[in-house]
Amino acid sequence: MRDVLPALLPWWHAGAAAGLATVTATWSSAPRAAGAMMAVGPDGSVVGSVSGGCVEAAVHDLCVSVAASGVPRTARFGVSDDEAFGVGLTCGGTISVLVERVCPVSFPELPVLASAVLAGRPATLVTRLDDARHLLLTDDGPVGTLGDPSLDAAVANISGLQRIGKVNASASDIPSLQRIGEVGAISGLRRIGGVEMFAAAFRPAARMIVFGATDHAAATARIGAFLGYHVTVCDARPVFATAARFPGADAVVVDWPHRYLAREAAAGRIDGRTVLCVLTHDPKFDVPVLEVAVRLGVAYIGVMGSRRTHRDRLARLRAAGVAEVDLEGLSSPLGLDLGGRTPEETAVSIAAEIVALRHGGSGLRLSETDGPIHAGVLVGERDTVEAAHRE
Q1: Could you tell me how many helices (H) and strands (E) the chain has, helices first?
Q2: What is the pLDDT of residues 81-122, one digit of tens each?
Q3: In what order do the strands lie in the sheet with 46-48?
Q4: pTM for the whole thing?
Q5: Residue range(s) of every CATH 3.40.50.720 domain in the chain
Q6: Domain XdhC- CoxI: where (predicted)?
Q7: CATH topology for 207-363?
């Protein structure tokens, strides 16, 4: 939605009808995850993507048709044995796509959703798959309707649904784009009262905090922003910690790292998605900040330095009273073994480790592995999906 909003909003405010396609389910090696969107404007222009190119032309035609008719459609695209290079996903996957009309009449909730998403406030959009009605859940309360007050109430009261978009959502709430289940569960691919829906949660961007105003930090900040993180660079030395030196960062803070991190944690701005990269190379900076970091339950703590530096750092942390179980959470030396040396190559190595840990990747070359290419498919999910579509 973030990708298509800048185009959708002007069309909406102009009163023009656009077509919006949303991936609601995937199977096998589908190139885009559930929640991926593509919008087609009244002039036929395209923003976003649902398949990385495999079926974009067919989805474009569907969007044009639905924008004109106002009748939502659900379609499935996948590779077939006799038409591998026709309309299908030649990568071997299958996607289910909801196509709906977007205009002030069909999607009156769009400006409220856009305001929340663009401001980084949590929001969850629930869409009926049969008629594309919407219920938007925000901190200010629900907006819109699914066409039945009892259904609206049931969805709004689902345990955990309103929390999916929040900064402090638990690890069990990830991925943040899911189908919703029965009352009391967020297990996906189920229905409420016979009505099937798709819930898309929009959370503030996860944070990356880079400690140390170095060339490696500048490269890491750039690749962190590329990955979608809200990036902060922090260093106690004002001559180095300047916005001009870190154009890829959202914020540059002059403060002692441990003091800044403790203050952010106390303010509730650190969560289980936060990644921390300690690139200071100086014990007087990195040891105090790591004493704070290892107790926060963040997603990643990467620390730069040689193996000798790492051993010395561990000894200092133990002397400071840090428990062994907390030290196990450190990625030090940080990054994957890619053989690179430049700051940019090192940043790629760091980013690769973060992505691999986030999705449970092995870090191996794909040509050396077998099984699914895309992570995140649960055991039994395919059967559950197929059963849901047969009902």
Answers
A1: 11, 17
A2: 344 344 444 555 677 889 999 999 999 999 999 998 888 888
A3: 46-48, 37-40, 18-27, 94-102, 73-78
A4: 0.75
A5: 207-363
A6: 11-78
A7: Rossmann fold (3.40.50)
